[in-house]
Every structure is written in structure tokens, then in C-alpha cells.
Give the backbone structure.
Amino acid sequence: MTVLASREYSCIREFDRQVWKTKNDMCRGCTKTHTNKQGEKGTNCKFFDNQKALHHNSLPPAFDLDELVAAGEAMSACPYYAARAMAASAQIVFCPYNYLIEPGIRSSMSIDVRDKIIIIDEAHNIEDICRDAASQTITRDEIQLGIKELGTVAEYRFKNQDVINNVDQLLMTLKSWDDWFANQTPLVNNRPVNNNESVHTWQVEHFVQTLNNHNIGQRQFHEFSDCAEVFCKRLREDPRTLFGVSQATGTLIESIQTVLGFLFRQDGKYLDDFVPALVKNSPSEYDGSQRSSQYGQKSDRETFSLRLLCMNPAVIFEGLKLAKCIILASGTLTPLISLHSELATDFPLQVSPNHIIPKDRVWIGTLTTCPNGQPLECTSRGTDQSDTQDGLGQAVLWVSQVTPNGVLCFLPSYMLMNKLVKRWRESGMWAQLNDTKHVFMESRNVRDHNDIMEDYYKYSLSEKGALLFAVYRGKVSEGMDFKDHQARAVITVGVPYPNTFDMAVKEKMKYNDKYCSQRNLLSSREWLRVQAYRALNQAVGRCVRHRGDWGAVLLADARFANSYYTDHLSKWVKGFLGNNHHTYESLVNSTNSLETFMQNMAIQENEDVG
């Protein structure tokens, strides 16, 4: 077996941000082959030169990415290239979704899915991942950078004579794209501004006409695609004379080739599955500060981008159908009708087993009222009310007081998390929570997140225990393991519907309503509900992770008393829930209370240890 991963995670060479923009650029720059005075060929990367030291016989029969990287460091051998070499003879290859899903990456990594068995874990994400893979954003800044870099390469005509015609053609195409942007900008100049964005969307046939008018449309695509193929292959394999061309320009050309390839495939078969949008980003005026660009420079000017949003995941999923077999695995795939219709694929074999956890080791209930008896309305409007905020605080505090070790609390957004913390600091609830547990909050920053999780895991094992506030669809709710003491209780707040003001969500809803009958798609309302409950079920699934585990789930929202709001809960959650709906008073005082369950499990755990 082997594990494929990007250079970001598997490169062991020290990365100098002052010299290189990305690790990809560093790798390409340092692995150029040269000949020394002794006539020996090599590169400026000793790890690359020594990559063959890492092979199946020098590693355990099974290993994960951390072990591969550690072995590479110990042997001074490149884990990235070694893993790619081992993939050719491996029987099992582990890789991120995008290596399989995105055609460009699949091709560059030499992954051939024909006659293979593909197993996609956490497959509840497959629809979104396929749509995202076929969606692209192209900015005018990227176009202008590409023109500048290709212009430099074009000056070295003799050294690049094998690709100079391709360079000239690509340069001409990017200049036409720059003209296209210049001519389309009036369309967004008078559009309303929302979240610093002005947006103009086209009917797709009108958009294609604008491309044809600028000689970058369907008639020119095949010639452009051929040139892009040759140039990008050269950039990957032998970039020595392509002076000044960064990874960004190669990625831009591949992005244009990929998305136009989808648009024009099979004489425009998928044209109606895309929504083209021109977006103008204006600098923020709220605090008077200038925004930072990705390289740390301040940007106080407008920027323009073209977003091509894919509405149909089947556009991408079709490329996997060459496989011998595709297995989708997840605890939260229901309702399956959505998968069949969205992926335009029949899955004749379906298994939906019961949960492996015995019934007496799980407590699941709902909380429908605040301590003052008011309904606990966890809608966006409801959570703006101080009574609801205080009621949630009291519920989280009580669960933390009766639950040993770790408690997770999932919220619909970072905005609500900050709003609640602000209210609880003012009311004194935050201090009470900190007296009860070590309190942590999920961070959007990867480095901070890793530090926070390390501390949470450590303190969840302490006598005081730990409480972690997290966000649905965030890092904590997807794929992280909280077993045994790390999550004895999970509190979920509200129903995490997608943001209907988001352009991609809004357009997807329109698309589904348009093709609801014709393609057997879910209506926009039902599609939103499915998205919400997949996120909710993922969060609930953090609670019990193996047969010997135990824990409790509290679904906090008055809406759960209505069967409409429990229909799409996972089969095992509905089975354990039954009619265990509670007011705050009954939650605390009933014979089937959470506190009683926790006491019984603590006694049982002590007996098991004894």
C-alpha cells in the first residue's frame, strides 16, 4: 500500500517563504537536473535524489502519512516522490478526494481508475466535492500575472523553441481573456453591493457568446487545450528554461482548460449545468483598513473574477464510472434518492445496518424549552433573543456539570459562537462554564486549531474535563475522532441549513427547482433540508465511536418536537431518540434524565475497571 499526499504535507525540505511563493514552486525549482564537474547528474534537493531509499521493503506493510514522513526524514529521502513511485505497484492506494475527483490532478498523478475498486469514505460529501471540482474561479489579476510571465518566457525563443509556438498561442489567449474582463466590467459597476461583492450572472448561452466574440470560445478551445497540455507537461517535467513561470500560471492555464473542457464537452452537453458569474470585490469600508492580499501586501482596489459554478455533480462523477466498482461509505448518506439523482448513477447494492452500540450505552434526547419555560427557538432570529442565548448557556452549563470528561457543543456558525460568548461574558455564564470545565473554541486557523485540539484532548482526560465549542461543517465535525472520555456528551444547537444568501447555494436551489421533475432532483426546499441534516448527523456521530464506547446526545431546539424535524436524522439516532423529548425541567428532573444516565454509566465503568 501507499499514501499519496500533496507536497504541503509530505515535503520535508525546509521551506523559505522569502525565496519561494509555494512549496510546489520550491520543489520544481530545486529538482531541476544538472550535471556536476564529475559528470554526475543530480539536483539541488538531496531528498529528491535519494527518493529510492524509501520503498515497500524499507517501510512497514501498512503505514500512515505521519509514518511515511518520519521514515523520509530518518533516511533523508523524499516521501512525496517515493509514495508516487510506490503507487505504481501498490494494491491499495490511499489519497485525498481531489486526487480521484479532479481530472487534472488525477492525470498529473498518473492515477488510472479503469478496472479499479474505488472506496470513497465520508461519502456524504461527494456531491459537494464533485460540484466544487467542476467549479472554477479565474481572476483578472491571475490573467495579468500569466501574461507577464509568459511574456518573459517568449523572449527566450531559442532556448524554448520546442514550446515557443505554444507559449505564443497561450499568451495571445490570455490577452484575449484580459480584453474580455475589460469589456465585461461595466456589467457589475452598477450592481448592488452585498458583503463587498457586486455580481452579474448570465444565461450560459449568452456567456458563451461573449467568449466567442473575444475568440476564446468553443471554436478556439481545442487549439488552446492542445497548447495547454504541451506547455503544462513541460512546466511539470522540465521547467529549466521557462524562466519566471510560477506554479500560479500553470494552475491558471489548467483551470481554464478544465472548466472550458466541461462547458464544451460533447458539443455542450453540460452547458446548462453551469452558472457563469462576474464578481467585483470592493475593498472593505467598514473599518477604514485596507485588505491584505495573499502575499501580505495591502490591497485598496477593486478586483474582478469570473466564477463558473457547477450545479451538477454528475459532470465530474462520470469520470469515475470507468472503475470496476465504486463503494460509497458513510454514516450519513440518507436520503439515498438524492445520491442517485445528483450523481446520475444507480447504486443497486445498499446496506444500512443498525448501530453497533448497545442501546443501554447511548442516551439521546431533545431540549425544547428554556429554563423559564419559553420555547427554545434556535433559528437565526431566535438566537438573537437574550432569553434563548441565556437558555442555551444554562443548558450547556448543566450538561457540563453532570457529564464527566469531554463535552462537545456544535453551533451553526462562528458568528453565533461569538455572539453567545459575548452575552455569556456579560451575564457571568462564561465564568461559570470555565469553573466547570476547561473551555475551548474551534479556530478557523489550521495551526491554532491543531494546538487547541491537542489541549482539548489532554484536558478532557482530567478530573475537571473539557468543553469544546465547534461549528457544523467545520474541522471538528468532519472526520475527527472523539472516542471514550474525549466526548461523553454532544450538544447540537439548531438545524444547520446552508446560507441561502450564498451565491452557489442560491443558484443550486434555482437549478434543482428547474430540473426537479425532468431529472428526478430534490426540490430546493428538500435539498436544503438534506444538506442541513447531513451536517447535523455528522456532528452527532462524534459521540460514540466503537462498540465499547458510551455517550449522550442532546438536540437543542424546540423544532425537534415536530416529526418533520426528526425525519432525516440518522436511522440509529431516531431509534435511540424515540419520544425522549424534554422541557428544561423534565430534562433535569425526570427519571430518564441525562444525569441519571451519566451516573449509571460511571458506576458501570468503575465496575468494568474493577
